[in-house]
Amino acid sequence: MATSIESSWIKIKSLTDEMISNSSREDWLGVSETAKQRHKLITLHFSNHPVGPDTAEFYQQHLNELMQNEAGLQSLITAARKKSMKENSFINNRKRIQTAYRQST
Questions:
Q1: How many helices (H) and strands (E) does the chain have?
Q2: Quick check: pTM over 0.85?
């Protein structure tokens, strides 16, 4: 059975995998939403399991991997947010055009 720190870490990795999966499907809004959840979960994880003597061994094994992937994930998140905003802008413009057309007829 996994300890509390391991369970929390598995949830973080699961959200990371979900972000990557969403990006492969070009679900940019999904990437952005998952990134928000992941950020909250990481913050909660480190508040519940701060780095210290009791957790040092765990973080020696796992923290480096998280940090190595973080720069790539941040780039993915930034690109996803831009694409999501662009898609929403397109949808809003289309709605405005349809509304204007309906009002003119």
A1: 3, 0
A2: no
